[in-house]
Sequence to fold (217 residues):
Amino acid sequence: MFKEKIVIVGAGGFARETLDVFEASNKESEKWDIKGFVDDNPRLQGTVLRGYPVLGGVDWLATNGKDLKAVIAIADTKTRKKIAEKLEAAGVGFCTIIHPNVVMTPHVTVGKGCIICAGCILTNNIKIGNHVILNLDITVGHDTVVGDYSTLSPGIHVSGINTIGEGVFMGTGAVTIQDLTIGEWSVIGAGAVVLKDIPPRVVAVGVPAKEIKKIKG
Fold:
């Protein structure tokens, strides 16, 4: 059986959780040949993490990754975009990994380079962009769009007809009501309850969520 040769970008806590997703998937289908991790922290390079080597940094993967597929297990949205663009320019391909216990109807589309962790439920007419992270126990309601590079932290509940813009970061336990938009590159604080549209490039926190500062760049 053909197996995809994959490398996990990042060697921190979420990278280990992403490895959990690959290993759970392999129990179902033995689809993945996990080659190891890459990380730009020089202290991690050459070490072994959960039995897999840290092969080098992102530059190593850009040089040696033509026959590999990558997934970027780094929660910071801007960092993930920067790495994805660098690897794509170098000809590195990307895989999407979905935990086998995720509940997802056939009416959901998922882009490349995504990580969808255990316990997530996605209903119908949902579009998940490229390089999106859906962490543990997230629900996403009907007719919702999640933009490229967004990160949804554990325990988030996104109601129907939401548009979550590119590069949005949502903290643990955040909740949205139906029919709203969160603008690109905004940050929603942990436990926030979003009751109205949030503009691009702001930080919004609280119940209800209110803008507390703008994000430059």
About this structure: The first helix runs from residue 13 to 29. The chain has two domains: 4-95, 98-211.
